[in-house]
Structure formats: structure tokens, C-alpha cells
């Protein structure tokens, strides 16, 4: 019997959890923008966001309790492409995401 082993270790999130979180975060950001985003554009943005998160999962998990750092990462690595895809101003999108995400 191992005495110092934690019973439940979180580890890395599953692809399903990542995809659902990405979908929810983008939906909340779009809602705060108060503009209509077509379903196919939402799906493309979600796929893009999921891919970026999957590529940087180690850093994201390491900073899971620091939403400000994660929102900063999103601003630098994801926002430009999604703003272009959705045809919205990047600054407004970053603000909307930060309000929705809590960073």
C-alpha cells in the first residue's frame, strides 16, 4: 500500500473536455460581442481553438489556476485568427473573451 500517493490525480484533460470547454468559452465570448456568428464560423473557430489548446496543453495545464495568464495566452495565440474569421475587431473580441473567461 502506497501511503503518499494521492487517490485522485487529475492529469491531462481528455479531448472531449477540451473541446467542450473551447466551445463554451467561444460561445460566451460571442454572446458578449452581441453580434451574430454563423454556425459554420463558430465550428471553424472552435476547431481552431481546440487545435491551439491541444498543441499547448502542457502549458495550459501548468497554468490552470491562473486565468489571467491563460487569457493573455489566448490574446496572443488565438484571438487574431478568430477575429479575422468572425470579421470582428480583435480588441473587442479579446475584451469579450476576457469578460467571459474571467481573466
Q: How would you describe this structure in keywords?
A:
about 100 residues; 6 helices
Written description of the protein model:
The protein is mainly alpha-helical. It has one domain (15-101). Helices cover 71% and strands 0% of the residues. The chain has helices at 15-33, 39-55, 57-62, 67-77, 79-86, 90-101. The longest helix has 19 residues, at 15-33. The mean pLDDT is 90.
Low-pLDDT windows of residues? none
State the domain count: 1
End-to-end Cα distance, whole Å, is 41 Å
Run of helices and strands = HHHHHH
Number of helices: 6
Report the β-strand fraction as a percent range.
under 5%
Rg calculated over all Cα atoms: 15 Å
Average pLDDT number: 90
What is the structural class? Answer: mainly alpha
Level of helix content? over 70%
The geometry reads as: globular
Largest sheet: none
Question: How many β-strands, per DSSP?
Answer: 0
